[in-house]
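[job 4417] fold queue: 2 targets
>>> target A
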Amino acid sequence: MFRSHRWLLCAALILSSRMAAQPPLSTIQDVLYRADGSPFNGIATITWKTFEASDSSDIASDVKRVTITAGNLYVQLVPSTTANPAAAYAVQYSSAGKTQFSETWAVPPSSVPLRVRDVRLAPGAVTTPGPPSSTSVQLGDVIGLQSALSLRPTMGTGFAVSRAAVIDALGSVDGAVGNLSDCIHVDGTSGPCGSGSAPAGNAAFVDGEIPAGAVNGSNATFTLANIPNPTSSLALYRNGLLLQENADYTLSSGSINMQSTAVPQTGDTLVASYRMSASLPGVGFMDQETPAGSINGLNTLFTLAQTPNPSGSLAVFRNGVRLKSGVDYTTAGNSITFGSGTVPQTGDILQCSYRIAQ
């Protein structure tokens, strides 16, 4: 009987010593202020998930609310940087009945009080098991970090700020090379806008190009960046009006020579659109066609050589002014019917451009 009592007493002492054991704690003590310099008053709500402390103590998930008065923050927490697995504390600051901001803490072991800056994690930072933050962490210490970094593009030898970014042959991010006025092609090369090395058999389009040359009332020669192909694809506009080849200008390769009556004056705007190749699978182009029909002020019906496809691709110009479908004219197949108020008069010039299916 006596031995039984002695055994129970020993067991009680051992259990009592285990219950008295407490996991290590680190103290976070600081004074918090608002941006205007006044002390912060409110509540810090600290939450954490279950983890194992460095002394193998099981820390259950819980929530702790700490009152902050006159800026004074004081709380003791189990270190999370030495936890297994790596753990962190989510901290939410509330004041005046609403959440003001949130942050994450990684608390290292410490025998002296820590400030908030010592435990605050920067946005996007990770927590890992291991030594305190004063010791360097190797890439291999963070599971999956090396693989994640390998998936990110690297900086190429030509990388530069304030340049368009292109991906080089090695998959690195490089800076585009060329003049500031150049355009970037899909293959990463650069050149004058509207230029490029389109694959054989494809059409290259140039839209809204301003021909080179002085617009001063005396200069009559202007130069395009490329040679229109076919030449009939050139649509040259002066102050928004479509000009007529041979009547207003002549074209020789990439050079535009204005007739004396059409020389651009100071303040005028020239804009050109054209193609550099005449082939596009399944698509054909009709440029500056004069529809068949008498221009006598009475005839309203005109006929195109082919049927526009799609019908919306049809552009009808009368004396250089583009007309509006459904208002100035209607279409049916390859026929154009003008309204009573827009019937072409004797001496008018009609020009039509459109696409067809091939």
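>>> target B
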Amino acid sequence: MTSKPNAAEAGTIDIGGDLTVNRLGYGAMRITGEGVWGEPADPSRAKAALKTAVDLGVNFIDTADSYGPEVSENLIAEALHPYPDDLVIATKGGFARSGPNRWTPDGRPEHLREALEGSLRRLKVDQIALYQFHTVDPNVPFEDSVGAIAELKNQGKIRHVGLSNVTEDQIRAAGQIVPIVSVQNRYNTVDRKSEPIVDLCEQEELAFLPWAPIQEADEVEVITNAAREHGFEPRQIVLAWLLARSPKMLPIPGSGSPEHVESNVAAATIKLDQGEVAAITDAF
């Protein structure tokens, strides 16, 4: 009988100095309907995907109030509450939704307070372990948005604060208001605009959560070659490359399929050599 993969094989990462999780997480955006809107076509399958992730050692789940909206957080609670002691659920606030694939930044303090309270209710927790400001709102002073989240942290409703879709200057500006422990930006083999942010996170001991981590993996020759060599799929090779790219990297691949979740976790078993890592890194 073949043993199942386990996220612990990716090693661990500390978040904020007091949360230790396995370094291969799960992103819960794809357990919603098409366009990240409404209920998934098969809610029972979505909940099975969540349970599979936890069964395979995943103890970090990333979600947001805007996924659905509300659907992802509700499904997490339905599938997993009461939560395992070591499970860290990170969520985000800062987007308003009006329909499928429609995302409108909303960083008003009143919106963020309302979003946080809703996440607490839906996730059935008294405190959010990691609350991330989902995106910068160009119509609201950045300091006002971050300041509202800092107030909620001071009230004990948030344990740690993270940022998403931000620049280095914004990370440093936010850090003057409240301690920042993580950054979640788009990053993959093809889109490397956040390369300096990855390096900054490594220098400053911040966790880096790459979103869209495995897009276009099967279109890059050096990745498909490595996949054939190791007997894995290209997207699994990309996850292995991300893990090798930086010790502060915390990939959060998502899926609504239990089988796909297991395939993602299996990437933790892949050990790329330095030459392979460099070849993928230098391909762009």
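[job 4417] complete. Note on B: The mean pLDDT is 96.
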